[in-house]
Amino acid sequence: MFDTQQALQSIEKEIQNIALGTHPTELYEPIRYIMDLGGKRIRPILVLIGNYLFTDDWQKNTKPALAVEIFHNFTLLHDDIMDNAPIRRGKPTVHEKWNSNIALLSGDVMLVKAYQQLDFVEEKYFHTILRKFHQCAIEVCEGQQLDMNFEKVEKISQGEYINMIRLKTAVLLGFSLEFGAVIGGADPENAQQLYDFGVNIGIGFQLKDDLLDVYSDQAKFGKQVGGDIIANKKTFLLIKALEKATGETQDQLQSWLTKVDFDKEEKVKAIIEIYNSLNIKQETESKMNEYFYKAFQSLDSIPIKKEKKEALISFTNDLINREK
Amino acid sequence: MFDTQQALQSIEKEIQNIALGTHPTELYEPIRYIMDLGGKRIRPILVLIGNYLFTDDWQKNTKPALAVEIFHNFTLLHDDIMDNAPIRRGKPTVHEKWNSNIALLSGDVMLVKAYQQLDFVEEKYFHTILRKFHQCAIEVCEGQQLDMNFEKVEKISQGEYINMIRLKTAVLLGFSLEFGAVIGGADPENAQQLYDFGVNIGIGFQLKDDLLDVYSDQAKFGKQVGGDIIANKKTFLLIKALEKATGETQDQLQSWLTKVDFDKEEKVKAIIEIYNSLNIKQETESKMNEYFYKAFQSLDSIPIKKEKKEALISFTNDLINREK
Fold it and tell me: Residue B18 contacts by C-beta under 8 Å, 6 or more apart in sequence?
């Protein structure tokens, strides 16, 4: 049986066990700080679920599973510098609490630490995992660069956007599942199918995020509804609206996007009205469901027992149905 | 026979062969740019010499040797961001030519690429090398953090300084030689002795750098003599002078260090006079020679033919005797 709570507990316990140096403290305190900020630990849980699909021995793989959590937190640390983000999980970001040089350098150490954590992978699977990890790591960096590029570009196509979110966020989910599968003895074809499941689910999750920013219940959402709208963030919704808007709607949309002084609430309301008039919610939901559907098709084709798959399906559905 | 020129040529050729992605170009052009800035390629040459000491087949190891060159350039890229350095090898630094986000992110990719290059290490040596590489990479980051810390500290001891330069620059030279030795089939003891040689030589090189900044022939030096003095850089010379100066000399030294407005030439001249009065040149040379002596003692105890050792001795002596 796979038990998400039990998995989470052993992940949290192992996070406390990660061997960090002590000197200089400026290098190691930020690593401890960001690892202790919490989060849902989705990626190592996906490693363990992926593992559970192919072996009952999943409990022994918490240590290698942490590699993806360390890597993920490394990307958050460096992305926060690049995005000049002041807050992460309700706390000051590392570059705010210390400074950006310390954030840069402790991030570098975290990338090495992620690699070091892979040393816990069993010898016979080691090279396969290591090579896939290199590729995944590079793709995540490519995604971040594309995301930064997109801020300066006027027009992005739907395909370019999907490719960016695939690289920036989805491939690490795919790799996490594949990682678990490979070290669970899955054959390459099944490991690939599970990777495809993860990537497609990941793309769907990001589209869900884009939707939640606009169409969520403020009481449940936790952060400000419409944050992406206020910042002109090129989400799937905006890209789609720019693609579909014509005539007066197009003029109104452009006018809001170029306005420098505006009332935030008024802008959010106006853009939502434009989205509604263009059917953007339905279009985005339909695209999101397309990816969820593709994902579950990949999962269907993996020849493992339905009871095993239930663990992954249930974990995924919780994430699909989240309201924040 | 080991042929440095031949080694250098194959290193340069392999650098051109490193597989880099193409998209997004912002991520890969900076990597190509910094790798093509040149430099003496000391670290991969040390891998190949370390290898040659234990096998005649050193020519086949250029690919794995590049891992240390990619890693070294990764550290330069990120250090230049942290130090806000405008120029590297006479050309604009990556963060100047592009921007600091691009420099940060392409540096991250380079660290992954360094790891990826280690995949060329023969299976039987792979884990040994990988684990030593993790450690070396972390130590280099620790050294950089200590170096940054020292800028803000008034007093550093000689021991703290030596430890910082050991981590920041010497361990990578030690690792490079050890790397070559291990993949050449050296036993662990001899590999360790070669590592010790590299680390001690590396510390000596840095002390030589500190000396050259002050006591070199401007015509041969290439950069401004006294640059460290103007910037109050805590070199071994300054640390030693602060330790030895008393009475009026101490007051003069402190006065120059705290002056905000000063004539550069005048400051350099005055500080050199203080150094001379305190015998700092001889003290530094003596410390440097202590490390060179230790290094050659380690080398002596490795049971390999004198002809083989000659390659390493001659390469090292060229670096010891350099005047810039």
Answer: B35, B66, B70, B113, B117
